[in-house]
Design goal:
The complex is a heterodimer of chains A (about 45) and B (about 375).
Chain A (H helix, E strand, L loop, with lengths): L3 H33 L8
Chain B lengths: L1 H16 L3 H18 L5 H14 L12 H9 L4 H13 L3 H5 L3 H7 L2 H12 L4 H9 L5 H11 L4 H13 L1 H12 L2 H4 L12 H18 L4 H16 L3 H25 L3 H4 L2 H31 L18 H13 L6 H28 L4
Classes of the chains: A mainly alpha (about 45), B mainly alpha (about 375).
Amino acid sequence: MMDKWTFGLTMLVVGMGGTICTLMLFSVVMYILKKIFPYKKEGA
Amino acid sequence: MAEAIISGLSGLIAGVLNFHWSSMVMIVIGAILIYLGVKKDFEPLLLVPIGFGCILVNIPLSGLMEEHGFLRTLYDMGVLNELYPLLIFVGIGAMTDFRPVLENPYTFLLGAAGQFGIFLTLLLALALGFPYNEAVTIGIIGACDGPTVIYVASKYAKELLGPCSVAAYSYMSLVPLLQPPIMRMLTTKKERETIMKTHQKTVSDTTALLFPIVITIIGGLIAPMGLPLLATIMLGNFMKESGAVARLTKASENEIANIVTLFLGLSIGATMVGPVFVKPQTILILALGLLAICLDTVFGVLFGKILYLVTGGKVNPLIGAAGISAFPMSARVVQKEGQKYNKRSYLLMHAMGANAGGQVGSVMAAAVMLSVLKGMGVI
């Protein structure tokens, strides 16, 4: 079993890093979706 | 005859004789929770059943939490198997409008910054001697998201379900009191006065419809351990956006959410048994939870300041405070605070974007955390 500091710092780096990277990916995917399916005004 | 009468009478005083002092403390706490819910309007839907459940379970010899007891049945039915928080998430998904975050997808990053408190609090909990599973559960209070906290606690640290849930819901309702001082402390007057451009509608119905499906697939592939959390909130949102299953959407956000909230509240209250709850560790957990939510706000605002610098003063850093899951309360706090310093400032839609990002961010942070734990072989 790893010591608690190794565990805590791994969680901080991989956990927080993973969360940021995932949400960054979500935002990129959303930009792409908006490009592929642009908003059209009603009646346009 | 006299003996029978004495035996009968002893049955009537057995409850009083078995009354532990800590149960009295818990009955008072239960009454305070009910008072906060009823009189102060602090998350009444949860605090009232939690408070009532807490009072019930601390009356001795009722058998409510014994096998086949009323509260034990509710607990086993949906807390033991994490069903209640997931059903509530379907309702939250059906109630949440993610379009503000889709208008400005960069606000997802504010939702990420608002999760720092989780991981820093986890570190602190470890430093204070909590075992891994408990430290993770305490850190999750920083998600500022009741169902996520309950999901993680019921899976990995059932003994902390009571204090962690109470902390999460109480602090969520205290967001209007907790956030403004931090927001003021970390920003200059000039930054707070920043007016953000209001934009026209840019999200098509197709994008809004595809959002929950795409997020579920990508998020699930990255963090499969948290898929139940992500999938249920996205299912609710998909039903709402599709418009095809209006009855299911309505049931999810009303009847199902209401019934489950009642069962969940009573079940959480039932875990708050005096001798188990009244100990220094509980106070430590409540303090760490408070710290976690404050740290979320600190890092959200700091990230907002970075955006302010990068964009040449086009982003008001106050919206960073809304990058937490308390939806839409946190966005309203930002709007109110922004208008205090500039009457022409209208931050609500931007803050709603950050807030919706925070909603997804908190679920993703929990999902990532569980998957990392699984990868490390801890769970």
